[in-house]
Amino acid sequence: MTLKNVVVLDYGSGNLRSAVRAVERAGASVTLTGDFDTALEADGLVVPGVGAYAACMAGLRAIKGERIIGRRLAGGRPVLGICVGMQILFARGVEHGVETEGCDEWPGLVERLQAPVVPHMGWNTVEAPAGTELFAGIEDERFYFVHSYGVRDWTLVTNDRTRAPLVTWAEHGGDRFVAAVENGPLSATQFHPEKSGDAGGALLRNWVGSLS
């Protein structure tokens, strides 16, 4: 059986090797690259991210990463965002009073968590919706989070022609935020599946297994 080819997008964000190893363990052939055509043609694209929203967007734009994501999604080709790689898929982010435009694949604002202790660092459960494919078999597991920002208030208006995304929520210090989204070819997690042990490995296997 031929392994699915997955590109982990290299745009200057850290923590890339652990993402590569985790996706390889999930059963894919993985290439780490920022090359436009290679990323466009892969069976799956992983967009990792650590650090500041603005810095990640600057790095992404430097390799035309937002165009890669947009063109892949226009053709129904799977993309998985992780941590800040999820946040930049939203319309904009605000850090330290500075607003940065994101990829705008989803409307929504990434903002500082309103919890007594920030960052949110460590293991946490999630509230996965009915019909989830990413969390199939691992709905009750714990995942590893490291973040100070998130999407806290998100309501999408849909109509008869569009299907609402499946949204997974989590809570930290009484503040609810988006922990994951499944929206056709576009999926994303606020937590780090590559740092989430067996549960994270199962989630990545679910995603790799969905690649056509």
Automatic annotation (TrEMBL):
InterPro entries: Class_I_gatase-like (IPR029062), GATASE (IPR017926), Imidazole-glycPsynth_HisH (IPR010139). It comes from the Bacteria. The keyword DNA-binding does not apply. Pathway: Amino-acid biosynthesis; L-histidine biosynthesis; L-histidine from 5-phospho-alpha-D-ribose 1-diphosphate: step 5/9. Its EC number is 4.3.2.10, 3.5.1.2. Residues 7-205 form the Glutamine amidotransferase domain. Keywords: Amino-acid biosynthesis, Cytoplasm, Glutamine amidotransferase, Histidine biosynthesis, Hydrolase, Lyase. Its main location: cytoplasm. The active site is at residues 83, 192, 194. It is found in: Cytoplasm. It catalyses: L-glutamine + H2O = L-glutamate + NH4(+); 5-[(5-phospho-1-deoxy-D-ribulos-1-ylimino)methylamino]-1-(5-phospho-beta-D-ribosyl)imidazole-4-carboxamide + L-glutamine = D-erythro-1-(imidazol-4-yl)glycerol 3-phosphate + 5-amino-1-(5-phospho-beta-D-ribosyl)imidazole-4-carboxamide + L-glutamate + H(+). GO terms for molecular function: lyase activity. IGPS catalyzes the conversion of PRFAR and glutamine to IGP, AICAR and glutamate. The HisH subunit catalyzes the hydrolysis of glutamine to glutamate and ammonia as part of the synthesis of IGP and AICAR. The resulting ammonia molecule is channeled to the active site of HisF. Heterodimer of HisH and HisF. This is Imidazole glycerol phosphate synthase subunit HisH.
